[in-house]
């Protein structure tokens, strides 16, 4: 099937990325009345000074410090945008709870809930766990991860497959009807409208700041970067479902 020209597909990606940014803009307005500051002004100030797109401004438990969600990751700023911090905010009064990690988890879960039905699912029956895999189809570790997905399925893990930002030469592969034909996907990208769906999904990965491929998003919203064997992933999944859940290495 013939795909859209690369320039057109890139334009679609920008539009889809803006769709997610607009979702974030709704969050910008959530606390404006009570915060005593204008989140839109802070957003514009940071974008002008740092050259990064800000899609979320939110309060933190520390008076005068605000959380900024960007495609480059989470930042913290004062109300005027004069000072910016990058790192983890820990709640020492509550067992050193990592508030930055909790915010990252929440953003990923929110974003993935916006996908809709146009997706690739490798479903397990019975299902014990669910994972989302952001990948491309060219890199060596990505191909190994894709080849091993049936092993996860056999162990009760359903996997949602989404494209990481990929080169123009690789994008058409996602809309090939023969994509991953050896895997038993219960849902496939439709041949009609596939380019728009692909742009939607790539926009999502950009919005989440997915840079490494493959990357896995766990049910709790944690992000695990790089290749993980099925055994490693099962160990992580069992760990996050355990009654006691100490901090893991996922972010």
UniProtKB/TrEMBL annotation:
Upper lineage: Bacteria, Pseudomonadati, Pseudomonadota, Gammaproteobacteria, Aeromonadales
Tree of life domain: Bacteria
Query: What GO cellular component is one of the record's annotations?
Result: periplasmic space
The protein here is known as Thiol:disulfide interchange protein DsbC
Q: Which PANTHER family match?
A: THIOL:DISULFIDE INTERCHANGE PROTEIN DSBC, THIOL:DISULFIDE INTERCHANGE PROTEIN DSBC-RELATED
Location of the Disulphide bond isomerase DsbC/G N-terminal domain: 34-100
Organism for this UniProt entry:
Aeromonas caviae
